[in-house]
Design a protein that fits this description.
The N and C termini lie far apart (46 Å). The chain is mainly α.
């Protein structure tokens, strides 16, 4: 199995060691999650390019409506979160 040496800032090292956490497993999972996140962003970017090619850029009114809806959704989510 290939190896990679990773350096942690002192406070992270101390927290991992102090809690007896399995550093290797934590780091592997963090890397997996980040790779998955970036893969999903790439897929999203590709979808948006295809969507824009199909339906075109939104006009000013559509953009304003979308921003208004996003603000409302964000406020509702904030209220639900407490």
């Amino acid at each position: 199995m290939p190896r990679m040496q990773v350096y942690l800032p002192e406070e992270l090292y101390a927290a991992v060691k102090g809690r007896g956490l399995p550093a290797s497993e934590l780091l592997q999972e963090a890397v997996r999650v980040e790779i998955r996140r970036r893969d999903l962003l790439d897929v999203t970017d590709g979808y948006l390019v295809e969507l824009l090619a199909e339906v075109g850029e939104p006009d000013a009114e559509q953009s304003a409506r979308a921003h208004q809806l996003a603000r409302r959704l964000r406020r509702n989510a904030d209220r639900a979160a407490g």
